[in-house]
Amino acid sequence: MTVTLDQIKKFAPRAKCDPALLAHAVNVAIDRAQLGTQRRLRYFMAQTYFETQGFTKFEENLVYTTAERLATVFDKRLSLTPRPGFGLAADYVRQPQKLANFVYANRYGNGDAASNDGWKFRGQGPMHLTFRDNYLAFSLAAYGDDRVVRNPETLQQIGTGMLSAAHFWMVNGLNPLADKDEFTLVTRRINGSAVTVPERLPVLKLANSIF
Fold first, then answer.
1. For a FRET experiment, which of 86, 126, 149, 162 has its CA 20 to 30 Å from that of 136?
2. Which of 80, 96, 120 lies at the terminal end of a domain, its last residue?
3. CATH for 18
4. 137 and 45 inside one domain
5. Percent of the chain whose predicted confidence (pLDDT) is above 90
6. Beta-sheet pairing, 78-79 with 87-88
7. Are the beta carbons of 26 and 8 closer than 8 angstroms?
8. Are residues 104 and 136 in the same domain?
9. Residues 6+ apart with CB under 8 A from 71
10. Quick one: angle between helices 132-143 and 158-171, nearest 10?
């Protein structure tokens, strides 16, 4: 199964990357992620589209404009009032690099906040691969070396990015869920929550009409 350039243009007309490169990258991902059925492909395309806002953004948005929102999203790391072991949410408003370095510190291979690992290994690529350990696992699987750890920004390039999305898809066992038409469970595994399912369903409907 392959996608065509015309299909990509119809599906993602606002894509910030060359549609021909995107089509090629998707076809490579189809092989790597074993997307050999229409449902698997449609699920993959819908989820990567939603995560990248139509293939226009390939990194996690860490710009938060209110302390309240920060405290809600990062409720295990940030607080509205001083608490032992927590950061003060107000200190991270509109501070994406500082935020990433704090909330992702000392987890899954990342160093402390001063190491800048949180920022370097923030969510990047169509599935927002996060943390040094996950970057290394993908790099070893795709290339047999640590090149993505050494150059983490390459996940924002469509070729490497779609390879990382295929890797994420396989590691998280999403094909069996797609085969069972479990869109909510796929979303939860990608996003950690099912709250955005109503927003993702129209994208799935679009994918169903094209692929």
1. 86
2. 120
3. 1.10.530.10
4. yes
5. 96
6. parallel
7. yes
8. no
9. 78, 79, 80, 89
10. 100
Give the integer Cα–Cα distance in Å for 48 and 50: 5
Query: Count of CB atoms within 10 A of residue 179's CB?
Result: 12
Cα(50)–Cα(36) distance, integer angstroms = 21
**Mean pLDDT score, 80-86:** 94
Q: 136 and 202 share a domain?
A: yes
Helix (H) / strand (E) element for 88: namely strand 87-88
CB 104 within 8 Å of CB 130: yes
Let me know whether 55 and 150 are in one domain.
yes
Question: Same domain, yes or no, for 89 and 9?
Answer: no
Half-sphere exposure (Cβ direction) of 6: Cα atoms closer than 13 Å: 1
187 with 137, same domain: the answer is yes
The 10s digit of each residue's pLDDT in 111-142 is: 999 999 999 999 999 999 999 999 999 999 99
Phi, psi of 59 (to 5 degrees): -145, 155
CA dihedral sign, ordered 135, 97, 151, 191: positive
Q: Could you report how far apart the first and last alpha carbons of the chain are, in Å? A: 10
pLDDT digits (tens, 9 = 90+) for 142-181: 999 999 999 999 999 999 999 999 999 999 999 999 999 9
